[in-house]
Amino acid sequence: ETITVKALAERMCINAGEVIKKLMELGTLATINQEIDADTATIVANELGFEVNIKVELDKETQLMMAEPEDEEKDLITRPPVVTIMGHVDHGKTSLLDAIRHANVTASEAGGITQHIGAYQVEHKGKKITFVDTPGHAAFTAMRARGAKVTDIAILVIAADDGVMPQTVEAINHARAAKVPIIVAINKIDKPDANPEKVKRELTEHNLIPEEWGGDTIFVEVSAKQKQNLGELLEMILLVAEIGEYKANPNRAARGTVIEAELDKGRGPVATVLVQTGTLKVGDFIIAGVAYGKVRAMMDYTGRRVSKAGPSMPVEVLGFSEVPPAGELFYTVEDEKFGKQIIDERFKKKREEELKLTAPKVSLEDLFNQIQEGQVKELGIIIKADVQGSVEAVRQSLEQIGTDEVRVNVIHGGVGAITESDIMLASASNAIVIGFNVRPDVNARNAIETEKVDIRLYRIIYDAIEDIKAAMSGLLEPEY
Ligand code: GDP
């Protein structure tokens, strides 16, 4: 905050010369149009016998955050858990989502469920559960990379006739990185060659150990095709939800996340949003990123019009000025004018950011400075290599070189090219990616650009270890 000498003099209704004279006495040579800081202005004004009342103008975004009510315990009610299904391709994620949805459809609803939205709710024993219908950990992590935390519980689907596969391991690591509890659903148990015991044995290697073997992971054996044991799975979700105590305040301005959105020819921008706290109502002024508008109409997952949506409820929203990106947080504001000011600010910031080249989040180049400034306490690493042996060798060496200031944590390791999913995980977890004799694929290369993730490619393990050691102690040679 600054003020010019002239403006300060005008406020006090005195001649600018007097202000300049005072400043000189204080050791500052100033001209009439010079900006002086708030502290200096206060001293000058005090010396001249005035009282100063500095009003700091907060930006609208900050005002919005500060206006966020603190929920008191008594305002909170239990909300339905939000569940995401993850797992290897073809293990039955979509089938399971469909089976659960259809098993819970009452006859009267059946006709209504033609229109598909990105999430739905079911009721089991009088309690609701929300399923977010974006199978795959890539979507899950892409949302997380944008700051959205939507999922409370992850269901890890594994086909009993196939066992743990590379994307199973990825899903485990993505869920862990998000600190989301995992329920294992062993699927396809109707198949003659199903071997659930083998799946359990394989999962112990990833620290998912069933209770009957002394662990604390919940396993449910299901068949999406035969609709077998689905009730049991829902039961277990409710059990985990009870432990998690997911709560929200329904009596406040709504806030949540855009799950998916598109431009509909007839209806304009259509967004499926998940309300995470508060209650969203028709007529509310809503903002998501730089999209805004008055909620014109809302539909639940069956396509039925609703006038309001409470915590954990997914709804389709009409009325946005443009299509908001998936993963964007939404807010409602009472004052439309205020809402538009926030949007203006966001547009300005967006433009500024587009002009400025942002540095990678964590980078080896800058790691030492970031450690010194206390910004980094843990260096997250994702290792991709051509052979499993290299992954393990690097993991072991790296985990030993942590210091008191910074711990090294390998959050994911796997065989094969560096994929988009690796980059999104790195971005969401503020990690770097190391590749041995592998390269990023096309999608990964695009993601590296947009996510500003630091990736390093090596042929020799020793070089990688040396680089990271050097980076941690501030001795890394700059890359040219
Ligand atoms: P996703 O890629 O994980 O979403 O897997 P899908 O749900 O598309 O299922 C892949 C294939 O497995 C499909 O042909 C399904 O019909 C089949 N499938 C899914 N669940 C079961 C099951 O419980 N039993 C049997 N026998 N087949 C299943």
From TrEMBL:
Domain Tr-type G: 78-247
Location in or out of the cell: Cytoplasm
Region feature (G-domain): 81-229
Sites where the protein binds GTP: 87-94, 133-137, 187-190
UniProt GO cellular component terms: cytosol
GO molecular function: GTP binding; GTPase activity; translation initiation factor activity
Sorted UniProt keywords: Cytoplasm, GTP-binding, Initiation factor, Nucleotide-binding, Protein biosynthesis
Described purpose of this protein according to its UniProt entry: One of the essential components for the initiation of protein synthesis. Protects formylmethionyl-tRNA from spontaneous hydrolysis and promotes its binding to the 30S ribosomal subunits. Also involved in the hydrolysis of GTP during the formation of the 70S ribosomal complex.
Family: Belongs to the TRAFAC class translation factor GTPase superfamily. Classic translation factor GTPase family. IF-2 subfamily.
Name assigned to this protein: Translation initiation factor IF-2
Species of provenance: Desulfallas thermosapovorans DSM 6562
Range within the parent protein: 301 to 780 of 880
